[in-house]
Amino acid sequence: MTGRIAIAAALACLGGAAQAQVADLRAHDALRVCADPAAVPMSSQDGTGFENRIAELIAEKLGVPVAYTWFPQGPGFIRKTLRAGLCDVVIGYAQGDEMVQNTNHYYTSAYGIVTRRDSPLAGVDLLEDPALKGHPIGVVAGTPPATNMARAGLAKDMRGWDLFVDRRVENPVGDMLAQVKSGDLAAAVIWGPLAGPLVKADPELQFTPLLHETTGPRMFYRITMGVRPGEQEWKRQLNSLIRRHQDEIDAILRDAGVPILDDYGKEPKT
Question: Is Signal found in the keyword set (predicted)?
Fold first, then answer.
């Protein structure tokens, strides 16, 4: 029994050292942000993305500057940035992903349908709507709406774009929006925070969130900030900042054109 206690004590010490090592990775003289340099309109190396603006807000409240580690968001993004200790927070990360420790969510948004405002499909708000059948519809392969579209009998109408791309050289969302505008696509089903701000700037297009889906994967997701597992104090500090400055964060999102929903993804947040 004594041996077991000694082993347990040693493991506890190692665990404590590991926790301390994780905590020591965070910088205190800057808000070190992991971000994609070309995930417009969310993050951009020129600082114009709405996640850049949220980072500036958080840094201002902390009294430090923002410092970025830029890396294309795809396979290896978290491992080579946050987990490598090169940065301390990802400003936008879906709740529940095991690669990071999530803060409290600071907004909820949904996938939706982009059409021309003068399109006969402009009133569609459900993927099971029979009006969609027989029309070419853009979607990013591997995303939740692609599954729902296949279940709704739209597989032959889907035009797919890759999920993981280097957006410095490829622009799936921009390509889909351009084809909707030109008429090459009748519609595109896109994540709201990507489509909303871009559609806001184009009077010929509209974005309709998918709030009424009854089958398949859900279309709405809560977005958090992501930190390293084990960094409880840092997570609590960010949670406090989110809570105290939620109105300012909401104002940034709304100004950008991000569709913000209630916590259940049912209605626009008021």
Answer: yes
